[in-house]
Amino acid sequence: MMKFITRKDILLQLKRDLIGKDAYRGVTLTYSWMANQFGHFSLGFIPTFILHKILLSKTEIKQAEIWAPLIIWGCWILFELFNFLGPLLLNKTIKKSASGKTTYIFNPEWANLAFDTLTDLCFFGMGALACSLICCYSPIMMIGFVTLCLLAIYPSYYWYSTKMHLQNAGYPFQLRLSQWNFNMQDQHKKIITGFLNSKEKGKHLLLFGSKGSGKTSLSVGIATEFSIRNNRCSYVTATKLLSMFFEQRDHISHSPGSWTWHDSSLLVIDDINPGGLIKKDILRATLFYELLNNAEYGPSNIQHIKAMNIIWVMGNEEPSEQVEERWETLLGTIGVPESDIITVNLGNT
């Protein structure tokens, strides 16, 4: 399988992030990550500088250039441990909302959060030890600083490329699955977890629900977890996708490492129908299939829709619809096995 985000793409994105004004080009997720790590470096550097001066002028402690960074870094380690272990120890999967209803919360990806915490601590330490070296050179501090710099290479590569996967997906907002906080049945939670952890391709998740049921945010949360695992994901509205059905499959790099919907491992199709008080489908399954199976690109479109994982964000599920209008029938028409069609109705709580 072709790898879309290469080292060359990362270097090109890095160049774009470093050169140019934010007010002109906007702020990318990769730029935000770099700014965040520079902040961690600074929060290690500045307090160390202040503490070093205090230890030299107010105390008789020897080797202040060693004690100052160790104290500051130790404080940040304790702070990050509290940030990480606090939610882990206090988190409950079931809680009561203000209305008295039971609200399910998906468990966070603790291993991923631990890796993020260690990355932050690495930059805190780099800042503290860099300040120590400037205040007074010490071979021990130099060894520690070089070691942290080497340890930071892989996490920096991983997180920077991961942010590229997230920003190239085109999500309308940032949301991890553990942040999703709506009503859901246990059986639906198991379905979502199974879809997320499945290694198989060609799985189709149909999310039904009225306006305000959380179906869009749920789809974004699921897709975000796929992106963080460095899968190629794409978010599109149904209207936009219909126009894409008439486009040739070209890998046009609008941004480094970008991809088209054809090349996605997971595709989120949002706003297929509004739901709520609008019971009938505005975009009928038959019309969708007609545009999908157009004369020029139909066979290719069908092959891609059939083969990739897709989250279909629907409105209300209307039992009175004719069989030929139902979206399950559409998927069957293009060759998706019934076993690969998964339905979750967020309205059934």
UniProtKB/TrEMBL annotation:
Keywords: Membrane, Transmembrane, Transmembrane helix
SUPFAM superfamilies documented for this protein: P-loop containing nucleoside triphosphate hydrolases
Transmembrane segments annotated in the record for this chain: 38-56, 68-90, 140-160
Gene3D superfamilies tied to this protein: P-loop containing nucleotide triphosphate hydrolases (3.40.50.300)
Protein name (Swiss-Prot/TrEMBL): Uncharacterized protein
Organism: Pedobacter steynii
